[in-house]
Amino acid sequence: MEVRELPHSQALEAKLSRMSPATTSLRIMGKLGVSSVAKISFFFCFVWFLANLAYQEALTDTQVAIVNILSSTSGLFTLILAAIFPSNSSDRFTLSKLLAVILSIVGVAVVSISGMDSPGGKGTIGSLWSLLGALLYAVYIVMLKRKVDREERLDIPMFFGFVGLFNLLLLWPGFVLLHYSGLEAFEMPSWLVISYIVINGLIGTVLSEFLWLWGCFLTSSLMGTLALSLTIPLSIITDICMKKASFSWLFFAGAVPVFLSFFLAALLCHYNNWDPAMVALRRVFSFFCRKHRTHRLTEDSEQCESLISMQSSAPDKKGFCS
């Protein structure tokens, strides 16, 4: 007899495939309960809030172009953290993924420079805020995927509902501290501003974060991070379609590598163990090694020819060798 032990994910799928759909329950599927989702949301609400706070603070201290360039380094942080704390096989570090991230950063840099206005702001502080926000976004998505390995286990609307609830209950004293410390005065907004806040909260935060996190679970954390960089060229394309602005050729030159890096990362995540950059590098290395390898000439083969027979002579009748 032979006993084989399958991994937990494969064993669960094999078990569910042998069961009828009527007997499949949330407990068997491994669906997290309300208390488990609340615990995860309690931890990640602070990381999510600090990441958004760092990005907004960076926008107030430096140029938008610099913020976009430094925020695009979140893909590099995600690639490194996912390799250190992997959640599945798609988080494996490869040279091709690194090149895709670098291609995305270069494209974002070119797009941002094409729309750069006159310099201004506290560049150093804003740059630090941008790097902090990029790092926190990478920590947020990598650790969440490591905590919840499959999208079926997490109720994403419930997760974001708890995140918003904990932010409301735990972070409201910040209004009082900022107001009485003189750092930022609090005043009631107008109804127009409130309506804009509500619309932005529903569409720009809830819906976009829900779709983004769902896409990260369905693909990989690197794919989700690189998808955030697409918002920069897509927003500029929207301005062009609405005839609000015109851009130079640098924008179109930079938008191509941003989109190309996204589709390249999607292809690499589909084929987990495929690393075309490493394969090409090995072939180039083997080609140059073969080119510089010393070849023997005909004269060398003659010099290596043995003049004495290697076979020992047969002994004579007296036991001596001739």
Textual characterization of the structure:
With 322 residues, the chain is mostly helical. It has one domain. Helices cover 69% and strands 0% of the residues. The chain has 15 helices and no strands. Helix 5 packs antiparallel against helix 11 and helix 6 (95-114) packs antiparallel against helix 13. The model is unreliable at 22-28 (pLDDT under 50). This is Solute carrier family 35 member F5.
Rg measurement, Å: 30 Å
Q: H/E element string?
A: HHHHHHHHHHHHHHH
Helix percent band = 55-70%
Q: Total domains, how many? A: 1
Number of strands: 0
Please give the largest β-sheet. Answer: none
Kindly report how far apart the N and C termini lie: 63 Å
Strand content: under 5%
Helix/strand class = mainly alpha
Query: How large is the count of helical segments?
Result: 15
- Overall mean confidence score, pLDDT: 76
Query: Ranges with pLDDT <50 over ≥5 residues?
Result: 22-28
User: What shape does the CA trace take?
Assistant: globular
Q: What is the structure about, briefly put?
A:
It is a multi-pass membrane protein. With 322 residues, this protein is an all-alpha fold.
Write the layout of secondary structure elements.
Layout: H1 8-17, H2 26-29, H3 34-61, H4 64-71, H5 74-84, H6 95-114, H7 123-147, H8 156-170, H9 173-181, H10 191-218, H11 221-229, H12 231-241, H13 249-270, H14 276-291, H15 298-303
Q: Which properties best describe this structure?
A:
single chain; 322 residues; mainly alpha; 15 helices; EmrE-like; membrane; transmembrane helix; transmembrane; Solute carrier family 35 member F5
